[in-house]
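Quick one: structure tokens for this chain, please?
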Amino acid sequence: MSPNTIGALLMMASMASFTLNDTLIKMTDGAVPLMQLLVIRGVISSVLIVVMARWLGAIHFRIARRDWGLIAVRSGAEVGAAYFFITALLNMPLANVTAILQVLPLTVAVGAALFLREPLGWRRMSAILIGFMGMLLIVRPGAEGFSVWSVYALIAVACVTVRDLATRRLSEEVPSMTVTLVAALTVTLFAGVSGSGSAWVPIDLRLALLIGGASVFIIGGYFFSVQVMRVGEISFIAPFRYTGLIWALVLGWLVFGDWPSSLTLLGAAIVVATGLFTLYRERQVSGG
């Protein structure tokens, strides 16, 4: 398979893994305090990552100082993304919070222009502004439609943007498993320290199975999200991020009985369309 085909498959796998993780976490319905949930999920996923990495021989820590700096930035962003996204997820319908995340290709394009000096012409800038308007239809700031959880989801978008930009700057010599393990350990450590003063609640079999399943799927999400930024052309691969919205719509309806409002769906369609146009322009400018 070509690098672009592999990248597209990795992106779809990443979106499926993250959305299945999100579904299982949301099914806990707040029965477990957030920091306790993150610690348990983090410990299980970290142990599984170490076992997998040692079996595959795909991990080492002989990494240049520059790359360690990028990994630190990326891991910090992962902590912010985990906290703000899961908090929003536990208080919003799955499809709605996932729809907000669809602005990521637009925010990554802006971030790449600002910090990586990648070109951003007026057409793509116009598409980004239109996409921002579509995002407002999803969030609907105002006396009746405004929700603080929507703001949490937007902060998560900013964190994931930083994460993806840092990943793009990593050297090829850095093993993806190492980056995945450091991210998992950082989130777990943050949750452990933040929740050290809070009492833990007992976990029954159902909750244990939900958190255990989420631990498995988050490994796929972490690993594939690293790999996908290092294979093929970003402009070709990025549109496959939108498969996450399809997963969220289907699972949100099947598992929770949620279906977004017409305005949310319209906003999501505008964001997806402008994101696709932005990526199309990127391919044209790069001669792809």
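The mean pLDDT is 84.
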